[in-house]
Write a structure and sequence with these properties.
kinase activity, 5 strands, 41% helix, Two-component sensor histidine kinase/response regulator, 135 residues, Bact_response_regulator, CheY-like_superfamily, alpha/beta, Rossmann fold, five-stranded parallel beta sheet
Length: 135
């Protein structure tokens, strides 16, 4: 799940993650994303901190997730322009990436985390990730 109010960046992240084999849902609104993840928890969340004014911001989402017995195991990856890594990690973020960064960095961090955690859900790994060539 990607929670990002900048539609251009959200599309970039979505396609990078899809190219890496992930199924991706996208939300511009923190509130709508939180409602969805309560009914259908994702394997991982990529979220911005600064979301639309008046919305549930990334800090609030992180606090709610980590305070919920049902959702606190979902790894959260912060993707933001705010350089507040310590705060993000202390609130429970698995990793904290400060923009700008290479989109491939995000998919590698998520893949590593899910494989390390022994995630049992379906993770589609494209042949290119294994170094295999189509032919």
């Amino acid at each position: 799940m990607v929670i990002e109010d900048d539609i251009n960046l959200a599309e970039l992240l979505k396609y990078e993650l899809m190219d890496s084999g992930f199924h991706v849902s996208y939300f511009k609104s923190g509130r709508k994303a939180f409602q969805k993840l309560k009914s259908s928890p994702p394997d991982a969340i990529v979220q911005d901190i600064l979301l639309e004014e008046g919305e549930m911001d990334g800090w609030a989402i992180l606090r709610e997730l980590k305070g919920s017995a049902d959702l606190n195991e979902i790894p959260v990856f912060v993707s933001t322009a705010l350089d507040e890594r310590e705060k993000g990690i202390s609130l429970g973020a698995k990793d904290y990436l400060v923009k700008p960064y290479k989109p491939s960095q995000l998919s590698k961090v998520i893949m590593h985390t899910l494989l390390t955690n022994g995630k049992q859900g379906q993770i589609l790994i494209p042949q290119a990730f294994h170094g295999e060539n189509k032919g």
